[in-house]
């Protein structure tokens, strides 16, 4: 099981946000450059399993980038946010992180889940 999970919900329609592209990045603290670690797409449940392995998830600063504009375009709709980036700090190697994204065309919300 990946120590990092996400779940994207289209709250405007009350359904999972399927086929949304996303990417995971880690900040290099020396150069201050974001390095892409992996890319994925949400499944029919709005989840993207297997984002990163336990060995690859080391303490540091990460971001999940969700391609929300492409998602809304695929539904034939326009949106205010072309993408959403959720930046978070990971310090406890034994913990799991769940980062949900609740999304509509003109707003979003996120939190640290369990």
UniProtKB/TrEMBL annotation:
GO terms for molecular function: hydroxyisourate hydrolase activity. Pathway: Purine metabolism; urate degradation; (S)-allantoin from urate: step 2/3. It catalyses: 5-hydroxyisourate + H2O = 5-hydroxy-2-oxo-4-ureido-2,5-dihydro-1H-imidazole-5-carboxylate + H(+). InterPro entries: Hydroxyisourate_hydrolase, Transthyretin/HIU_hydrolase, Transthyretin/HIU_hydrolase_d, Transthyretin/HIU_hydrolase_sf. Keywords: Hydrolase, Peroxisome, Purine metabolism. Pfam families: Transthyretin. GO terms for biological process: purine nucleobase metabolic process. Residues 2-113 form the Transthyretin/hydroxyisourate hydrolase domain. It comes from the Eukaryota. It is found in: Peroxisome. The keyword Hydrolase applies. Its EC number is 3.5.2.17. Substrate binds at residues 7, 47, 111. SMART domains: TR_THY. Catalyzes the hydrolysis of 5-hydroxyisourate (HIU) to 2-oxo-4-hydroxy-4-carboxy-5-ureidoimidazoline (OHCU). Homotetramer. Belongs to the transthyretin family. 5-hydroxyisourate hydrolase subfamily. This is 5-hydroxyisourate hydrolase. It comes from Periophthalmus magnuspinnatus.
């Amino acid at each position: 099981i990946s120590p990092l999970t996400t779940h994207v919900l289209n709250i405007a329609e009350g359904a999972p946000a399927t086929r949304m592209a996303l990417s995971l990045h880690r900040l290099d603290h020396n150069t201050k450059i974001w390095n892409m670690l992996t890319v994925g797409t949400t499944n029919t449940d709005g989840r993207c399993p297997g984002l990163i392995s336990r060995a690859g998830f080391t303490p540091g600063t990460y971001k999940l980038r969700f391609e929300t504009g492409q998602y809304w375009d695929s539904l034939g709709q326009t949106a205010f946010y072309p993408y959403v980036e959720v930046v978070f700090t990971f310090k406890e190697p034994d913990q799991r992180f769940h980062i949900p994204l609740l999304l509509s065309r003109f707003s979003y919300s996120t939190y640290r889940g369990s």
